[in-house]
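Repro case for the chain-ordering regression, as requested:
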Amino acid sequence: MSRDFTIVVNGEPRTTNTDEDRPLLDVLREDFALTGTKYGCGEGDCGACTVLVDGIPTRSCLTSMGECDGESVQTIEGVASGEALHPVQQAFLEHRAMQCGYCIPGHIMTAVAFVKEHPDASREEIIAAMSDHICRCCNYQNILAAVEQSVARRG
Amino acid sequence: MKDLFDDFQEQHDSEVERYELRESPRYRFFATRRQFAQTLGAGLLILVSESDARGQRRGRRARREEPLSQRFHLGVEGSLTVLTSKVEVGQGSRTQITQAAAEELRVPVERIDVIMADMDQCPDDGGTAGSRTTPSTVPRVRAAAAALRELLKRHVAKQFAVRSDEVEVEGGVFRASPTQAMGIEDFATDQRLAEQLEEVTAAEEIPLVPVGDWRILGTSVARVGGRDIVTGVAKYPSDIQLPRMLYGKVVRPPAYGAILQSVDLNGADQLGGVIVHDGDFVGCAAETSWGAGQILEQLEPRCRWDRSPQVSSNELFDHFKRTAQVRPSQRGDLSEVMQSAVHRIDSRYTVAYVQHAPMEPRAAVANWNDGQLTVWTGTQQPSRVHGELCRVFRLPADSVHLRVPDTGGGFGGKHTAEVAIEAARLAKAAGRPVSLRWTRREEFTWAYFRPAGLIEVTAGVDTNGALIAWDFTNYNSGGSAIETPYRCGQTQARFVDCDAPLRQGSYRALASTANTFARESAMDELALLAKTDPLEFRLRNLDDGRLKDVLRAATERFAWQQRRGRKMRGRGIGLACGTEKGSFVAACAEVEIVDGEAKVLEVCQVFECGAIQNPVNLRAQNAGCLVMGLGAAGYEAIEFANGELKTASFSGYRVPRMRDVPKLDLFELDRRDLPSVGAGETPIIAVAPAIANAIARATGTRQRSMPLDLA
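-- result from build under test --
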């Protein structure tokens, strides 16, 4: 049955009346027009739909509204501060860590949380964390360089 | 100049492995009145008048006589817009075309906007395939930009009564003297100039900026649109949203070859949304994709299908052999020369079906308005998709408006129109815009595949280790790069058509990966028999030239000579090289065998494609191709049984991830004396045989099937 759900999206409370089993991904994209979060597989394998739920990288395709009611959700649209890019976004730009770019919002969300949690991360730890994502253009060298730079600047 | 315009897209339509380009549309809509009546929901009956029933393809091709007004718009705010039917699928075409125009016009990159594949506006430069953007479209855009530059110089010269060669161009400003200048914003409002743009074409013999004078081409201009990608603002086809838009779903058959027998739509109007049954097509649309998915679940059990036995992947190569259409006349006889060979191989290689699996599955938004159909979709062949929409909906060319937003990956996999047609059919019934986005499962199952192949090689060398006979047969996968680049006494290479159990089509580099895998593996097998180092064996059988150059460069960087002598337990090195579409690649790899599985430790790859136009983007293509090639080399394989796909998800179909990337040493040779050619395909072809050769060296056992089952 549908009912009202309220989540705080990029700092703003947003409400939608919907089915509790409906994925967060669909609500973000279709109800709130936040299309930066992408569908890639619907099974949690590829990471394209990654958002931060209370700061934790989360697959929005596998997260139902019932599971995230009342939570705070950050999407790619909420990462920059106005015109000022987040250092991770800046690093992705500088290292040209994108080809088609479709997977990049998901990569950036995981990287934003990772850099914050692991300011001293080794290259191996970065690779382990970022391997939850797929970039089919296989631009992994540049993505790795971007995340390494983000860690180095922060650590 | 002539050649710039002559080599064009048509040549690719004849390549055998671009099967998808010869397919007829999957659906035949509005077939009978009875089926009309089964269309439910809003916009129940859709009648097509006879006068509409003349689907025609627009034949508007970019030609040398095309006026500059079709290629450029001058903006009153000082911007310059370039128009092209090429699309951006991640390979960097938007940036490259920006550079091309900026170079010739001396306009800053930031002031150039490129409109790609809005087929109402853009001249048709052909589809985005076959590495044609660099050798074909970039020169066309440059030639047009150079013609525009000269026209504007003459215009300024006239205004200020100087000679046009006295007009200097810098930063988008055309200067007749220190105090006399005009900019694009001035030109934009000049009516007389606008008329000239309608008349002047790029056909005039205006020299392009020579490579030695390049200031923008040849540099690592940042990816145009990069900021929108990292902020999530970029709108891909799946992100297009229109007011009142619905979301669609389509009922898929349970297996390949299944034919829709009947649909029971009794009471289906209670399910909500819009339901369409038209011929073989059953689909629905609702306010949300979740809602559409719930209707779909109700529709699926109402469909009855006729299934037929289908070939399975475990019998695939026998099936190819059984159905091979070999004509006796095609078979030359090399037996005599083969007899005289001192060493000879008779080897058989196989390559599995693989899939593009772009991160963005097929997506389209369709909207009907007053008999006019507008579709936003991701395709590499906008003109073809436009034509198919005209045919299927029986519309004149100017009633279909196709727009291709920058798309989330293609790799040769998005040449077809099915999602555009499906979205348009749903939207027609709904009377509202419909967004249809295929699921990953649909993309895996109902898109098309790189053809699997069986390749037989018989070859021999003489006492000097020189190739004297080479007989190469490719069953099913295709003819790209099928000719050996090595010097050889007698050669024959042929492609043999077979019955294909899966829908086949284009893929990055087509069959050149399969053919290079077989050839470079066979070369190593011969080198081993001749007790010759694989590098020395190749150099001995190669004429001097660009392929030899990349092979030498890669083996020097990799320190092949030093490393081949080192024996490390469980480790081996291998190399391979190849050429396709006028570019050249060589790779060296080192593998380690751990618990019986091969792990790739390192790959060194050198690539050469003429004069480099954007070094950072070229590196990304070189690396991206190599790692994508690593997937098909190592573990990607489509498995299917009796019409059902067994690998329709990323958990069932492994693609390379960051942890799979070995140590990479990449290099691109910059041949500024040679014309630039495309780079998005050829760097994929050498990695698989280099790894196979390394495994053979490490284990003493030759693996002749792709994938090689890497760790």
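Ordering looks correct now. Residues 1-14, 33-63 of chain B have pLDDT under 50 and may be disordered.
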